[in-house]
Design a protein that fits this description.
single chain; 173 residues; alpha+beta; 4 helices; 33% helix; 11% strand
């Protein structure tokens, strides 16, 4: 098969030749001992994306079940796993998130960008403010309140002509 061909008929001939060779190999590799193992594959969608073949031997006890990972999963894991990761120690979420089964080591140095140098929270006078009014007074000083009152009075004077009674549009103090 070292020759390259653009003829589809030649491709079909090669394919049939390969299929006949494969069928002969399967016949030769048949079970000689007479025992047949039951292989049950589950088609349900589990939370962990790892699939297993369940092999149950001919024992009477149903509790003896071995879990053997699929061979196709092992081929994919060689390309996808990073250094130090084993596919048996990781769950994969539906969104691609990796969840490690093992607890991370606690004797590892904390990286410098993960160290908190200042604690979050209030500072200065805000720590002593206990009521809502005290907290609001931290933001609104007397100058801001005076400006709000002046602008409100200007607007009230503008719309005061729309009302017959004086008490309906009274100036603020």
């Amino acid at each position: 098969m070292s020759q390259r061909s653009k003829d589809p008929a030649q491709w079909l001939a090669w394919l049939e030749e390969l299929e006949t060779e494969d069928s002969h190999q399967i016949d030769e590799e048949g079970s000689d001992d007479g025992e047949v193992d039951d292989i049950i594959q589950s088609d349900h969608n589990s939370e962990s994306e790892i699939e297993y073949n369940i092999i149950q031997s001919d024992h009477n006890s149903e509790s003896e079940i071995e879990y053997i990972p699929n061979a196709s999963d092992d081929d994919d894991d060689d390309n996808e796993t990073e250094v130090g990761e084993n596919s048996e120690n990781i769950y994969y979420g539906k969104d691609g998130t990796k969840w490690c089964k093992a607890i991370p080591p606690s004797n590892v140095r904390t990286r410098s960008h993960n160290i908190i140098t200042h604690l979050p929270g209030t500072k200065g006078r805000a720590k002593q403010a206990k009521t809502e009014i005290e907290c609001l007074n931290l933001f609104l000083n007397n100058l801001i309140i005076k400006t709000i009152v002046e602008c409100t009075n200007i607007y009230i004077k503008y719309i005061q002509t729309n009302f017959e009674r004086e008490r309906d549009a009274k100036l603020t103090n």
